Amino acid sequence: MSIVAYFASLSILKLIKNMPGGVAQGLIWGLMALGVYITFRLLDVADLTVDGSFTTGGAVTVMLILAGCPAWLALLVAVIAGVLAGLCTGLLHTKLGIPVILAGILTQFSLYSVNLHIMGMAANKAVSVDKFSLILSSRNIPASILTGALIAAVLVAVFYWYFGTEQGSALRATGSNSAMSSALGINVGSMKVLGLAISNGIVALSGGLMSQYQGFADINMGRGAIVIGLAAVIIGEVLGRALLGKHLNFCGTLSFTVIGGVLYYLVVVTVLWLKLNSNDLKLFTAVIVALFLAVPYLREQSKSSFSRLKKKGAAPHA
């Protein structure tokens, strides 16, 4: 097929039609990215627990809804389950001296079996919007977008308030400089455990919302979640700095993290619209993350290069 024929076979209307669904799912992934932001940026640790806790949130939510619990209560229990997963990682790291990245891998690895037990040893469990009252569903995308945006706005507001409190500031200080924080009397270990617990609680919330949106929980639904979360965080940061520059505050950073999740999933929708192999999505995600991670470094390198050239040019005149 020639290039002209290939692009002629693509339907712009189909792309536009799929965009709202991409926004709805992007908001859910944006919520997950908020959890990743807490560990990746505020605590300055790489937590791989999220691949497992995302699935845990979905599994707990679906099983409780099938058991007759209201969707909001199922989500609340899912958040608690995510908090417990984060606590496991934090305690493995702080009490047993296991490096945080390995502690996350161990918790994620064990959560695979835990999630199977939660779902009755089944690889997936379905929940229908026709039989149960769900918070959001792919059957009603406009309502899902509104609900997702509202939950995101509430979480951003709560985080903005919490991380301005004494405890929240101590958590941020721990990630910024743990040695100095310890010297100031902050219990660094407790702050790390707390941060990991909050992070995975939000990730589990996202997993619970995703399972309701897509109508099922799957044992592999969290695979690669950490990469998607990192992509959303990096995209949001680069976009925020490009648009607001020095005026980008903490609230704006949190908001752009959610927007990064939306932009990431719109890219996914575009890739699928281009009829590219869906099995290559993880490759595209890795490339996107690598590019956005490289942007700040390359920008600094270009600035330093120009400054060096400027100094060299000014030297002969002096």
Give a written overview of the molecule.
With 318 residues, the chain is mostly helical. It has one domain. It has twelve helices and two strands; from the N terminus they run αααααβααααβααα. A two-stranded antiparallel ribbon has the order 1-2. The longest helix is centred in the C-terminal third of the chain and has 37 residues. The protein is globular.
Brief summary of the model shown:
With about 325 residues, the protein is mainly alpha-helical.
Task: For the largest sheet, list the strands in their spatial order.
Answer: 1-2
Mean pLDDT across all amino acids: 89
Total strand count, please?
2
From the helix content, strand content and strand pairing, which structural class follows?
Answer: mainly alpha
Helical proportion, percent range: over 70%
Q: Could you say how many structural domains there are in total?
A: 1
Number of helices: 12
Beta-strand residue percentage: under 5%
Globally, the shape reads globular
Uncertain segments are none
Helix-strand string = HHHHHEHHHHEHHH
Largest sheet: 2 strands, antiparallel
* Cα end-to-end separation: 63 Å
Q: Calculate Rg over CA atoms.
A: 21 Å
What key attributes describe this structure?
mainly alpha, two-stranded antiparallel sheet, 318 residues
Strand-helix topology:
Elements: H1 3-8, H2 12-42, H3 50-66, H4 71-94, H5 100-118, E1 124-126, H6 141-162, H7 166-176, H8 178-183, H9 188-214, E2 216-218, H10 225-244, H11 250-273, H12 281-317
Antiparallel strand pairs: 1-2
